[in-house]
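Exercise 7 asks you to align residues with tokens for two separate proteins.
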Amino acid sequence: MYAAKISRWCALALTCLLAAACAGLPEGVLEPTGKTATGATLLPIMVATTRAPSTTPGVLYGGERGTNIDLTEIVVSIPPDSSRQVGQVQWPKKLPADPAIDFSTVSVTPIKTIDAGQNWLRQHRSTNGRLLIFVHGFNNRYESAVYRFAQIAHDSGASATPVLFTWPSRGSVFAYGYDKESTNYSRTALESLLTAAARDPEIKEVTVLAHSMGTWLTVESLRQMAIRNDGVPSKIQNVILAAPDLDIDVFRVQLADMGPKRPKFTVFVSRDDRALDLSRRISGNVQRLGQIDINSAEYSAALAQEGITLLDLSALQAGDSLNHSKFAESPEVVKLLGDRLIAGQTVTDQQIGVGEKIGAAALSVSNTVGSAAGIAASVPIAIVDPATRRSLGDQGARLGNNLGNAMTGIVPLVPGQPVRRCKTTSTDCLPINAP
């Protein structure tokens, strides 16, 4: 009984911390000012949403569910680099915002037809034809998702056209159940957006970046798409799951249902993620994918087999008190996103493999990975990718004790071989032999 009381107290304390972390943001920041500042960056974003419109000026959309997929262009002004810190959203303390020091909204333009949406994509096409779709997580207001994605797109320096998919989150820590159902409500809408992107001849490849509960929405939409079309379209090449609030057992089945025609997955995990602690407690105490221990023997076989790369951010220190948004707030990780992951490149040198800790110095524009001598760099990130399984033995012999616990090994998802539940006539189905 005493242990149960302690567990409830911890969950309550974490809930209060979550609420405090999200409190105090100004309302109405999306009221367009038409102004920017010298040295500021203007970033146009296409926003697709399943939220219901709001009548409150500068809010645009609230947390209730809409009946349509609405499209809007929002141009965000990001203050000069000299006035801000990479990885942070500089929220205005009062309105109207000062574009010299604050994020601010320059213009808001509804996109009312499919043709208008296609025209917008053509006008803002990146030189490489890459599209970056961001799906936010739990407890996010519309404006929070817009500004956070603007920060990520700007700070990463990724060469990609930015598109935000925002679903009906009430922006309250006490609305976890509602938010989870809202992701299910939005599955087909996100699938439609992904399908339209895959069919657009101007778009050459699609990367999806999803955070927290948004990873559930993303993986479910891809699973639904794969079942409907016997695989995910090849243009959707890369999926990055940051702090995924995903039941690891369910994720295994989702992957199996997608079959072999699926994107490459990269997953950011952190054992000290306090938000996922709470999620695990209210979800049957089942391990969340974003919090797995990559040294655990429990996941000893499947990761390399499934071609999934894991990046363990547990040793990173970021400004997020919950350790739930390291992917966006750590300058090193944001740079890694822009330099390599959004572009679909491998994180590690193919000959070196991984199982090393690399730091800020290794995350340079040259896209090189430091040798063992470079592991002393300041901000460690443990990386495990499929190449490690092939070369782990040689790595261990060569680096020995110099790497210590940094030699993390393979991070499988489940023991045994996952399978796809699909038509028996399909030639790419695996036999049903999962445990």
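Second protein for Exercise 7:
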Amino acid sequence: MPRSFASRENLSCELDAQSREPIPLPLHSYRHDASLHAGGAQTGSMSPARLSILYVSQMPASPPRFGAQARMHGLMTELARHHDLTAVMLVDDEFDIEECRFAMQGYCREVVLIPNPYGRNGLAKRLLQLRSLASTSSFERLRVTVPAMQTALDHVLRTRRFDVVNLEFTFLGHCDLRQAPPNARLPALVVDSHNIDYDLARQYACAGGNLARRLYADVNWRKLRREELRTYGDADGVCLCSKADERRLLDEVPGVHTMVIPNAADVAFYQPRPSDPPPDDRTVVFFGLLSYVPNVDGVIHFVRDIWPRIADAHPQARCKIIGGSPPPSLMALAGPRVEFTGFVPDLRPHLASAAAVVVPLRLGGGTRLKIVEAMAMGKAIVSTAVGAEGIEAVAGRDLLIEDQPAAFANAVNRLLTEPGLAARIGQSARQLAQEQYAWSGAASALEGFYRHILDVRS
């Protein structure tokens, strides 16, 4: 039996995958049995009966360039092997809409992408934030309140019968998703909660930044909480990334049907290869979307509070920070031994040559895809407890966990000094990823949850 998904307090979110060309995953590389809250059902390999599933999101699933997309892409491509998927999704300016459409048409029966007129950064975002101060709606809700999105949903839902509507996040919870063709049964609504987002916003309100930002976040998270909990309460079921998030939700909305569907990795893609460069015994790597607040905070914390202790002990060591959209506050930290690479199309060579991967996160919820992808590559990882929350790993065997700067630096120094230790931890991490963190198993568990919800409604 697979081990249960452990959790720790105050965990961080999963937005960290890099872009790559999707390749087929092996079918059912492991069997995943996950217990279901409020029902006790268990899931295994996928059932032969096909389901018709509508995926709704405020961002496209493919090609995956950060963690939220990686989760959607991983689950959807696996489900599409056995079920019929349709997607209706908003597209911000940062995405190439035709590239997204082409990628998603590879596994979806129909793809409807709606340009988001509010999906812009800069002045447009600031003006919308100001507008949200005078609104009863959160900023997150206002930026996805797009009439064309509801029009598209009306058309799709009224012309085709769906068994399940899968809503990614809760921000589009105001949309009318309980529709069906005449005389057809209404679809079940399942929310995939990547994080308890209001709790993330609450953490941001308490975590540094200037006074204006903290005050704004303090007002906004309360609106977001009201909207988010209402969406969870209206759903037939809610998927969460970690047991910690499941506990947080059930404390607020008792009785909702929940299931933990952990983040996973493409273990066939992320694996050591003979052609990869060997570990160089000196490079320490962090990777993730660098516009994401928990990652920004984590990188600043690492470079300012932890890295100097490593650099002093190892004069040849260097720090490589991989990821797109770094803000000026991060770029100011670059130096002769601290490199910001920007976005890279293929993480694998960078991870293969690294002596260690670090996850120094202090904020967040859910689980981090960077952890499971680095594990799949057989890398030794040093993480905070927040960074490793929700990952069923044994500290000292599958990764190293330290929260204090000195202890975190000492753990990294051990890996730089003892390559044999790094190799043993990496091998154990790779085995754990193969056994418990492949997308095929996560998708099988999700299908079982869909079927449980449908059985309860019948």
